[in-house]
Amino acid sequence: MRLSQRDKNKTTFQNGQEIVYPLQGVGVIQSIENRDFQGQQMLYYVIYLE
Hints:
Structural class: mainly beta
Helix content: under 10%
Oligomer: single chain
Shape: elongated
């Protein structure tokens, strides 16, 4: 199944939200950024692990 560009940019996560990162533990989303990867814009989550 291919996602449309609109669906790719959707996220249910928000800055400041606590998350559980498998094998790493609990973290907090510090920012959500669009970055270039091999010529395509990708969504990246910057996470602070406690």
